[in-house]
Amino acid sequence: MIFNFEKFRNVPIASVVLQHLLSDYQFPKNKIISLEKDGTILRLKKGLYVVTEKFTGKTISRELIANHLYGPSYISLETALSYFNMIPERVYEVRSMTTKRSKNFNTKLGVFTYQTTSKEYFSIGLRIENFENEIAFLIATPTKALCDLIVSTSHLRIQSLKAMQSYLLEDLRIEQEWIKDLDLDIVYQSIPFSKKKNELNFLAQVITYYQLINKNL
């Protein structure tokens, strides 16, 4: 092999980059096909690959893959809530927000879905998360992920403070400790650009309620 695939860890590689690295071969495209067949690389979509774990010895980050698969995008919704251990359920589908049109990818690493949002709303409440101290990906903060879930869930209409409280505690099964630690500023920044202003206002009220309770303990 002309170069060491391990140096790529689990960072996605464009086919044009692979062809350049394999330029010493007479037919670089055929070599890419061969590498895919023998399990050295995995095709994520047309023109994008990742080196498999058995060759790198590194766990593939599906969150990093999601950022590269379709962008600009960031990890959010149930995927981010599960990542931060806010909800008890394990999430198998990797869900993201994007400024492009909504899209789904069904890959050998799982299903990746992308939900459309506005550019103004997109940039609020994001963070860079490090993975194994080697790579980083863009993900919503817990508060933004919760706002995204509320805004993006079809037919979810919450029309009272009590209903929002029930949604958080009973439907999503988020602990009260998590609710009091949510960032009110992110909620208020999101409201002007949200399709569900009333729902996010109720979310802000619930957060305020639990923060006041905590202060009085």
What is the average per-residue confidence, as pLDDT, rounded to a whole number? 91
Largest sheet: 4 strands, mixed
Oligomer: single chain
Number of domains: 2
From the N-terminal CA to the C-terminal CA, the straight-line distance is 64 Å
Structural category is alpha+beta
Helix content: 40-55%
Rg on CA atoms, Å:
21 Å
Total strands: 9
- Ranges with pLDDT <50 over ≥5 residues? none
Question: Please, how many helices?
Answer: 11
The succession of helices and strands, N to C, reads EHHEEHHEHEEEHEEHHHHH
Give the strand line-up of the largest sheet.
Answer: 4-5-7-6
Strand content: 15-25%
Outline: elongated
List the helices and strands and how they pair.
Layout: E1 13-14, H1 15-21, H2 28-37, E2 41-45, E3 48-51, H3 53-56, H4 62-69, E4 73-75, H5 77-83, E5 94-98, E6 103-107, E7 110-116, H6 119-122, E8 126-131, E9 135-140, H7 142-152, H8 161-171, H9 176-180, H10 184-190, H11 197-216
Parallel strand pairs: 5-7
Antiparallel strand pairs: 1-3, 2-3, 4-5, 6-7, 8-9
Helix pairs in contact: 5-7, 10-11
What does this structure look like?
43% of the residues lie in helices and 20% in strands. By secondary structure, it is of the alpha+beta class. It has two domains: 5-56; 62-216, no CATH class. Helix 5 runs antiparallel to helix 7 and helix 10 (184-190) runs antiparallel to helix 11. It starts with 12 loop residues before the first strand and ends with a helix. The model has no long low-confidence stretch (mean pLDDT 91).
